[in-house]
Write a structure and sequence with these properties.
The complex is a heterodimer of chains A (116) and B (114). Chain A has 116 residues and is an all-beta fold. Chain A contains no helices and twelve strands. In chain A, a hairpin with a 2-residue loop joins strand 7 and strand 8. Chain B has 114 residues and is mostly beta strands. Chain B is built from no helices and eleven strands. In chain B, the strands form two sheets. In chain B, strands 2, 4, 5, 6, 9, 10 and 11 form a seven-stranded mixed sheet that branches. Classes of the chains: A mainly beta (116), B mainly beta (114).
């Protein structure tokens, strides 16, 4: 079974600075997706960014980018120019592509605080 | 196109009562996933359904929990004889047939058992 580990329960960053959230995963598969979701206090799960494992190029969405290291099974999220609205729980997730539609496997999350 | 709709947003039940949580997937989505989130924890997969079929229920407790996704109407997660440990946020997500499409989540139902 696949597992996702987020080793940082909490992180904080100064407004306008950059922060990196860590995520590692364990799988024997070669085809999969990786995701970062943001969960603000409203509880809504918001997709931040996703990465296809077959792509070597790191995904980027505006201020959010990932560092995907397939061999190391590492998938960190970098938030540049942090804003107060970035404060939330961030979840890393894995989705297998081995057999059609499959559920997401989530890490336990990292709570990000942004200091004004 | 409305997103994934879950209701109720909050649900309070006494121990021993039944809880019914509803999820209407996005239009055109035939795959539904239920997750449970305990306080300060990540989302744990419970069950995956496709219209009228349970595809994977490996994360769902064998007793007291059941799920359905009928041909017409929303998906229902049913918890019988609730206990305090069932208190959690329950999320539903949906996706279309394409495996390349991401899951879209509802806003969750927070169940409190008193």
């Amino acid at each position: 079974a696949q597992t996702v580990t987020q080793s940082q329960p909490e992180m904080s960053v100064q407004e306008a600075e950059t922060v990196t959230l860590s995520c590692t995963y364990d799988t024997s598969e070669s085809d999969y997706y990786l995701f970062w979701y943001k969960q603000p206090p409203s509880r809504q799960m918001i997709l931040v960014i996703r990465q296809e494992a077959y792509k070597q190029q790191n995904a980027t969405e505006n201020r959010f980018s990932v560092n995907f290291q397939k061999a190391a099974k590492s998938f960190s999220l970098k938030i540049s120019d942090s804003q107060l609205g970035d404060a939330a729980m961030y979840f890393c997730a894995y989705r297998s592509l081995s057999s059609g539609n499959t559920p997401l496997v989530f890490g336990k999350g990292t709570r990000l605080s942004v200091i004004a | 196109n409305a997103g994934v709709m879950q209701n109720p947003r909050h649900l309070v039940r006494r121990r021993g009562q039944e809880a019914r949580l509803r999820c209407s997937p996005m239009k055109g989505h035939s795959h539904v996933y239920w997750y449970r989130q305990l306080p300060e924890e990540g989302l744990k997969f419970m069950v995956y359904l496709q219209k009228e079929n349970i595809i994977d229920e490996s994360g769902m407790p064998k007793e007291r929990f059941s799920a359905e996704f009928p041909k017409e109407g929303p998906s229902i997660l049913r918890i019988q004889q609730v206990v305090r440990g069932d208190s959690a946020a329950y999320f539903c997500a949906s996706s279309p047939d394409s495996v390349n499409s991401p899951l879209h989540f509802g806003n969750g139902t927070r169940l409190t058992v008193t």
